[in-house]
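Worked example (supplementary).
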Amino acid sequence: MFEARLVQGALLKKVMEAIKELLNEASFDCAHSGILLQAMDNSHVSLVSLNLRREGFDKYRCDRNLVMGMNLSSMSKILKCASNDDIITMKAQDNADTVTFVFESPKQEKISDYEMKLTNLDQDHLGIPETEYSCVIKLPSAEFARICRDLSQFGESIVISCTKEGVKFSAAGDIGTANIKLAQTATVDKEEDAVMVDMQEPVTLTFACKYLNMFTKATPLSPQVCLSMSPDVPLVVEYKIEDIGHIRYYLAPRIGD
Amino acid sequence: MAGQSKISSFFSSK
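After joint prediction of all chains, the assembly is encoded as:
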């Protein structure tokens, strides 16, 4: 028996918004410690890794490890039926071929349940090594979304260049060039407004706008985003999900541009 | 997309 009840059901709706453009389907690996999802996009350029810890749920029970292959378009349709203040429970029997979503309104006057068929997915899981990154940049997530959106007008790629002075985002194309420099903030009233750069060595890498823009669909999950870069390895774009977990996107760099 | 590397070339399959 698997059952996970999330009082802040809106978080699950936001998680869905954050992955559904990138992935058509994904396996939710449910275990005693929580729910994990790892999947590559169709082009195998990026990878999504979602971690929801059991402690973040109001009620969590997972008697046996369970892999639930879900069509994300179907799951998204179902989650759209939940109100933002609904409590959401996911449940499934052991070896079941369906999952049930139960939505409870805060005062319990409306309870809906939706059963969805599971699909067998044969997805490769990749081992992601623990890495010390040369540059770790924290910035407001809305600022990052704005930068990606603005620079996408100029070309297909964004160059991210991190030095001890700060971080520079650049794009170039037919209409011209664009550069956005962010300096590390000295003092801020709110920590979520800060730009912080932790640099061991300068790094410059080029990434496809298309994917960065899809990652920014996670912006409503967290006021801050963390970018981790090292030479010639994938970028990590991480959004914390309150005290329940995180969503990380890994993006392979463009080379020879 | 020209010059785009694949994520699977950086991480090994489990």
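Two points are worth noting when inspecting this output. The longest helix of chain A spans residues 9-19. Residues 158 and 171 of chain A are 5 Å apart (CA to CA).
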